[in-house]
Structure formats: structure tokens, C-alpha cells
């Protein structure tokens, strides 16, 4: 426990420095992010080590690695900084119709393609000066994105194991289907045999020519031919148009753009049920003290794959 004298020696800049070093794992990169010199970061770390009586970060040839104590401090430090940020934000009243706030929403291509058009239409009606910035966030980095305040909210598919420091609500479930150009032979005979013998397009944001479908097939001694790999579903639909390929994609994404790319869909002909993807809206609980963040969170909760908002 820090005593009263130690508390007086801590300022928010010092806690922010700790958070950035923890995120960057490198003194030089942290200095760049904070717009200070590396020596200033080193001096701040020296003060933090004295306060917490722990090395906190150990030097390696590639940067620094946090100690167990530093990892324990990550959440409470983030909470303190978040509360301070919301305290300052809460000093300003929030009225959607007159607000000019900016929001950064971490998301993935599929979720953004489904909710963005109706979200923007809704915002234009009720808060015309509000600005929304969408940021592509990987599944492995989602919660770190919120902890580091690089995104205000998340709208994306996540597993059910969401840390307790976040408010997370299920918005809808996404079903996957096979998409193919009009007239494709697979659409006339959508069997497992036809599926395995078709040339496939795979959407892989992180790269690599293997997806969850390949794991299902491999468990049954089957495989498919992945001929094209693209990073986003929108690019995938453009590549499917007029091709001889088929692709496994979220139903809501394909249905929204099917006419534009002249695509049709069919169920995935697998002998097992393909799991649906649960789309969540997520925000740090402490951030909900900010009326503006709470408003945007409620707005996201009204999203649905049909393209309308229910709230």
C-alpha cells in the first residue's frame, strides 16, 4: 500500500507513462508516443520503481518486459486514468443535437459493414456534428485497445470471456453462409462434395490460407482448395463478383451487398452446425460515467444485421 506521502508524489503523468511503457514494451517507442525524451521516460520509471518498490520493467535486447507486479498494476492504473478522464469529460454537459464530439469505435470489417450505414444515418438525424472514426482492431488486441484509450468503444465478435472491468452487451448473432456469383455451379447443387471441389476465396484479416472451415473439414478427413486470400469481406465480395470462386461469409454482409456484386448465398453444406458469431458492444464500465460515451453505447446496442436501429 502506498502511504499518504507516496500518494502526494504520484501525478497522472507518471501513471500515464507507466501505461504507455506497458503498452509499447519499449522505452524509445514510449517516449515517442508521449512526446518526451527517452531519458525523461527512464527518469519516470525510476520514480515509479521507488514508489512501488519493484523493478516493474526489465530490460531485454528488444525492449522491456513487465514484471508480475507491473501486470497486476495494469488494471488499477487504467481505472485511475479512466476515472480522471471521465471526471474531466463529465464537467461538460452533453447534448447530442449540439455536440461536436469525436468517437473512435474499434471494430472488424464484417461488423462495420453491417452497422455503419444505419449508424451514420441515425447520427446525422440526432447529432449532425458528431464525428465517428472506425478503427480496425484485431481480436487479440481488443481489450488492450480500450485500456490504452485508443478506442472509446468496441463493436465486434468476441468470446464470452470478457473481463469484468468492461460493460459488454450482446447485440446480435451472425450466421455464416456460402456466397457465390449468380449462376455458379455450386448454387445449383450445394452439396458437401461440390463445396470441397470448388475453388474458395478466404477472408483472413491476419493473413494465412486456413480458416475455421478447414478445421471442420480436416476433422472428417476432408479438405478444400483455397485459391484466393483477401483481408476484408468487402474486398472478398468484389473478388467473388464474376469469378469461379465461392466464399464463406457473414450473411448480413453478403445480403447488404449482394445486388451490387451480383452474388447469391447457400447454406454451408457441412455435417455439423457452424457456430454463429456473437457481436458485442463493449465499453469500460468507468467510461459510462461520461454521458456522451453512454449515449453512443446505447446507440450501438440498437444495431442489428437487418440494417435498422431498434433504439
Please give a structural write-up.
The protein has 311 residues and is an alpha/beta fold. The protein has three domains: 4-90, Orthogonal Bundle (Arc Repressor Mutant, subunit A), CATH 1.10.10; 102-171 and 277-301, D-Maltodextrin-Binding Protein, domain 2, CATH 3.40.190.10; 176-266, D-Maltodextrin-Binding Protein, domain 2 (3-Layer(aba) Sandwich). The chain has 13 helices and twelve strands. The strands form three sheets. Strands 4-3-5-12-6 form a five-stranded mixed beta sheet. α2 (12-24) packs across α5 and α11 (233-240) crosses α12 (251-261). Mean pLDDT is 87; it is low at 1-6.
Please sum up the structure shown:
The chain is α/β, with parallel strands linked by helices and 311 residues long. The protein is 43% helix and 22% strand. The chain has 13 helices and 12 strands.
The total domain count is 3
Mean of all residue-level pLDDT scores: 87
Q: Care to count the β-strands?
A: 12
Number of helices: 13
**Percent of residues in β-strands:** 15-25%
Query: CATH topology of the largest domain, what is it called?
Result: D-Maltodextrin-Binding Protein, domain 2
Q: Which outline best applies?
A: globular
Stretches where pLDDT is under 50 for at least 5 consecutive residues are: 1-6
Radius of gyration over all CA atoms, rounded: 23 Å
Helix content: 40-55%
Strand order within the widest sheet? 4-3-5-12-6
Write the CATH architecture name of the largest domain. 3-Layer(aba) Sandwich
The CATH class assignment of the largest domain is Alpha Beta
The CATH homologous superfamily of the largest domain is termed Periplasmic binding protein-like II
Structural class: alpha/beta
Biggest sheet record: 5 strands, mixed
Order of helices and strands: HHHHEEHEHEHEEEHHEHEHEHEEH
Distance between the termini: 45 Å
Amino acid at each position: 500500500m502506498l502511504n499518504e506521502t507516496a500518494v502526494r508524489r504520484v501525478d497522472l503523468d507518471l501513471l500515464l507513462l507507466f501505461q504507455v511503457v506497458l503498452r509499447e514494451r519499449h522505452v524509445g517507442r514510449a517516449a515517442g508516443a508521449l512526446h518526451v525524451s527517452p531519458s525523461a521516460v527512464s527518469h519516470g520509471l525510476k520514480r515509479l520503481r521507488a514508489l512501488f518498490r519493484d523493478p516493474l520493467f526489465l530490460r531485454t535486447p528488444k525492449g522491456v518486459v513487465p514484471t508480475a507486479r507491473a501486470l497486476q498494476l495494469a488494471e488499477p492504473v487504467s481505472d485511475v486514468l479512466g476515472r480522471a478522464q471521465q471526471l474531466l469529460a463529465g464537467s461538460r454537459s452533453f447534448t447530442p443535437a449540439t455536440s461536436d464530439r469525436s468517437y473512435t469505435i474499434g471494430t472488424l470489417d464484417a461488423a462495420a459493414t453491417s452497422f455503419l450505414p444505419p449508424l451514420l444515418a441515425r447520427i446525422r438525424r440526432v447529432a449532425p456534428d458528431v464525428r465517428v472514426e472506425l478503427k480496425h482492431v484485431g481480436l487479440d488486441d481488443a481489450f488492450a485497445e480500450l485500456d490504452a484509450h485508443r478506442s472509446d468503444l468496441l463493436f465486434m465478435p468476441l468470446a464470452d470471456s470478457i473481463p469484468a472491468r468492461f460493460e459488454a452487451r450482446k447485440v446480435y448473432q451472425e450466421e455464416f453462409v456460402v456466397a457465390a456469383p449468380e449462376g455458379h455451379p455450386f448454387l445449383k447443387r450445394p452439396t458437401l462434395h461440390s463445396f470441397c471441389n470448388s475453388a474458395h476465396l478466404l477472408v483472413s484479416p491476419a493473413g494465412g490460407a486456413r480458416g475455421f472451415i478447414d478445421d471442420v473439414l480436416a476433422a472428417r478427413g476432408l479438405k478444400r482448395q483455397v485459391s484466393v486470400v483477401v483481408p476484408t469481406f468487402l474486398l472478398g465480395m468484389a473478388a467473388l463478383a464474376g469469378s469461379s470462386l465461392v466464399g464463406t461469409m457473414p450473411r448480413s454482409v453478403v445480403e447488404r451487398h449482394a445486388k451490387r456484386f451480383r452474388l447469391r448465398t447457400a447454406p454451408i453444406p457441412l455435417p455439423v452446425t457452424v457456430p454463429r458469431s456473437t457481436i458485442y458492444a463493449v465499453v469500460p464500465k468507468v467510461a459510462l460515467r461520461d454521458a456522451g460515451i453512454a449515449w453512443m453505447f446505447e446507440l450501438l446496442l440498437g444495431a442489428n444485421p437487418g440494417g435498422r436501429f431498434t433504439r
